[in-house]
Amino acid sequence: MSQQNSLFGAEEAPAPPSGGVSAPAAVISSPSPAAAPLGMPLAERLRPAHWQDVIGQRHLLGPGKPLRLALERGRPHSMILWGPPGVGKTTLARLVAQTVRADFIVLSAVLAGVKEIREAVQRAQVSQQAGRATLVFVDEVHRFNKSQQDAFLPHVESGLFVFIGATTENPAFEVNSALLSRATVHVLRGLEAEDLQQLVARACQALGQPAWPEEAVARLVDHADGDARRLLNAVERVAEVAEASGQPLSGVLVDQVLGDRLRRFDKGGDQFYDLISALHKSIRGSDPDASLYWLARMLDGGADPLYLARRLVRIASEDIGNADPRALPLCLAAAQTQERLGSPEGELALAQAVAYLAVAPKSNAVYLAWKAAQAMVKAAGTAPVPDHLRNAPTGLARQLGHGQGYRYPHDEPDGFAPGVSYWPDGMSSASLYQPVDRGLELRIREKLDRLRELDVAWRDRS
Predict the structure, then answer these.
(1) Where along the sequence do coiled-coil regions lie (predicted)?
(2) Are residues 299 and 428 in the same domain?
(3) DSSP H helices in 79-213
(4) Single pTM value for the model
(5) d(CA 225, CA 119)
(6) Which terminus of the chain, N or C, has fewer Cβ atoms within 10 Å?
(7) Span 324-335, mean pLDDT?
(8) What pLDDT, in 10s, does the model give residues 401-440?
(9) Residues 322 and 297 in one domain
């Protein structure tokens, strides 16, 4: 039997028949730890053989939960499994196929194309003719382009196979709407500490070792950051070092073997944007402590400090605005400091800016006014500039009336020319900028109210 490692995973599959169509894959089951082949990674050896053995994901597999009901009834549905790495997406797909005794076809969206999708469809058709169900699992489905994703649609609709896609990216953005409408999205979560502790206990049993010290387990759980595969790989490395060196298992040994913990951080992915959203909303919510925490999380995870500096400049205009105009130059100075000093020295300036933005008075009045002005321009089209506002640099321009009737505000009392319209002819004026009653905008609002009163008084006299 030939091994198919690149496209359909590492399962054994019969040689293709004369028509070039591969025969159906065998039903997948995971080996028990004791029966595992020599050299198989611990994470693979401990892959659950039954869905009841899955650790975590109780919101999907607990009593009465949707995925469990589908498994218990033997009626799986097409689905998208969305979650971070190491939370069991591939395992669940295998267990669904095993529970309903379906032929299991694995496609990697990194390696496969339309040709391989077509081959998978042919295999499913052969299985259907033989009275067997087929489950097609696509790992990293978000990496398929639209035409590749569309190739599944008619077969999912006809029921030729059950489709399961796994992704670490938000399927609302990365999976096309037609395929998404035919599949249920199940969100998988990072494993909790108690789940990871249970997994360590299983690993110790599989390795034939007594329970590890609590301190060592706590360090492993902290290192794993919710990722079961990372945890089991770490357990295996620590166990190998302990055996080779004769050192006792301890938290110190775990630290020596694993080094600095790298927290889960998907630069440019969903988690990245969730973190920047948390930072922005904490600043907007005037919580300096939470704001500094999220800044530290992003820098610790490897975010570009200059990207964060640019976001702070944006926040200064969007959420503070003229309530505290000092916020914008402060953020620009922090960005310049980061650019000149680099990390870690420049990061303190970013922290200073974050704390200042969080405690500054908040106003989105400029942001709302700008959006309203943009909407007006799109709706009104290209209105001509009134003659009194036009430039008049030449005699011809002045003969045409450009600048005629313009009142120079510096020649007016209080530096303001009441009654003058600065809008296109025929367009009603609009109060786009509405300062709030906070910070400097409180005084700005008072001044605008006074200027508007002068306008009204001028018109009443005219």
Answers:
(1) none
(2) no
(3) 89-99, 114-129, 146-150, 153-158, 171-174, 177-180, 193-206
(4) 0.59
(5) 38
(6) C
(7) 96
(8) 888 888 889 988 888 988 888 888 888 888 899 999 999 9
(9) yes
Contact 200, 220 (CB under 8 A): yes
Task: Tell me the DSSP string of 157-191.
Answer: HHTSSEEEEEESS-HHHHS-HHHHTTSEEEE--PP
- What's the number of CA atoms in the CB half-sphere (13 Å) around residue 417? 10
Residue 377 lies in a domain: no
- Residues 128 and 109 grouped into a single domain: yes
Distance CA 392, CA 403 (A): 6
Q: Are residues 224 and 107 in the same domain?
A: no
For residue 400, what are the contacts with CB-CB under 8 A and spacing of at least 6? none
Query: Which domain range does residue 246 map to?
Result: 194-258
Q: What's the rounded Cα separation, in Å, for the pair 177 and 153?
A: 11
Q: Could you tell me if residue 118 is inside a domain?
A: yes
Would you say residue 24 lies in a domain? yes
Q: Is 229 within 8 Å of 203 (Cβ atoms)?
A: no
* Cβ–Cβ under 8 Å, residues 402 and 387: yes
Q: How many domains does the chain have?
A: 4
Cα gap 139→128, rounded to integer Å = 23
One domain, residues 398 and 440:
yes
Sign of CA dihedral 239, 244, 250, 251: negative
pLDDT band at 341 (very low <50, low <70, confident <90, very high): very high
φ, ψ of residue 390 in degrees (nearest 5): -75, 155
CATH number at residue 330: 1.20.272.10
Q: 140-169, pLDDT tens digit by residue?
A: 998 898 888 888 999 998 989 999 999 988
- Report the range out of 39-43, 250-254, 283-287, 384-388 with the highest average pLDDT: 283-287
Q: Which residue shows structure tokens 């006074």?
A: 450
User: What is the CA angle 27-31-37, rounded to 5?
Assistant: 120
CATH assignment of the domain containing 83: 3.40.50.300
